[in-house]
Specification:
Blueprint: H1 6-9, H2 11-39, H3 48-81, H4 86-89, H5 92-118, H6 135-138, H7 147-180, H8 185-212, H9 222-242, H10 246-263
């Protein structure tokens, strides 16, 4: 099997990766600033409008990122399994269409959550047992039966997460099987890219499945998983991709060795 040139191979990947990096920055900025402010505030409050905005952007950016990860898996499939057709199938136009479709899909998904939430009555006390607003917490403080809304949200958030996660794992398992049969620098680079994607997929979908693919009852690990999902995970993505760069890895090793040598 032959592999396409580096520039052609990264045509779609660079565009999608840039969008993914932007979404990571945005995602971690949705809840972290308010959380930091609350650390120094005696009375921790958020307006209803602010809560809905936080909920909307959390699901908008999160869903768009999930769809982008799916696009990246498709990109890897074409590059590895159909290398001679890569430059034809992955045109600049298709790249734009896939990225825009991911953003639109995230927007529609988030809009559904918000429409279901704002029509519910809230009688008080309106206290959320967490550091940010999400559908799982907001549904608990309503004063009506939310079984139907909860089922819709479990299907729209939880089921989508599970289906995409399983599909991505199956696709990457297939790609790894193909790559293991090949040798060479191109196959090694593609293998490294797949491992990075698999790591990010697990970090992204694991907490999302735990939070949304079950009844919205409160459990002890909820807050820990929420912190990992909304703050730690987006910060890990750039680190994971950075460590794939040999020049940066070598520079980091030299810096660590120099620091240890100077201490001695």
């Amino acid at each position: 099997m032959s592999f396409v040139g580096r520039k052609e191979l990264l045509l779609l990947f660079n565009s999608v990766a840039a969008n993914l990096a932007f979404l990571d920055i945005w995602y971690s900025s949705i809840t972290a600033p308010k959380m930091l402010v609350d650390f120094f505030a005696e009375r921790k409050v958020i307006s209803f409008g602010g809560c809905i905005a936080q909920l909307f952007f959390l699901h908008f950016v999160g869903a768009a990122e999930m769809f982008l990860l799916t696009v990246m898996a498709y990109d890897r499939y074409v590059a590895i399994c159909k290398p001679l057709y890569y430059s034809v199938q992955m045109s600049r136009r298709l790249c734009v269409v896939l990225v825009v479709a991911s953003w639109v899909g995230g927007f529609i998904h988030s809009l559904i959550q918000v429409v279901l939430i704002i029509r519910l009555p809230f009688c008080g006390p309106n206290e959320l047992d967490n550091y940010f607003c999400d559908i799982t917490q907001v549904l608990r403080i309503t004063c009506t039966d939310t079984f139907r809304e909860e089922m819709v949200m479990i299907f729209s958030s939880g089921l989508i997460s599970v289906v995409c996660f399983v599909a991505l794992l199956v696709s990457y398992a297939f790609l790894l099987t193909v790559l293991k049969k090949n040798v060479g620098e191109s196959a090694s680079k593609a293998l490294s890219t797949c491992y990075s994607h698999i790591t990010i997929v697990i970090f992204m979908f694991g907490p999302a499945i735990y939070i949304y693919a079950r009844p919205f009852d409160e459990y002890a690990p909820d807050k820990v998983v929420s912190v990992f999902h909304t703050i730690i995970f987006p910060l890990l993505n750039p680190i994971i991709y950075t460590l794939r760069n040999k020049e940066i890895t070598t520079a980091m090793k030299k810096m660590v060795l120099q620091y240890l040598f100077c201490r001695k």
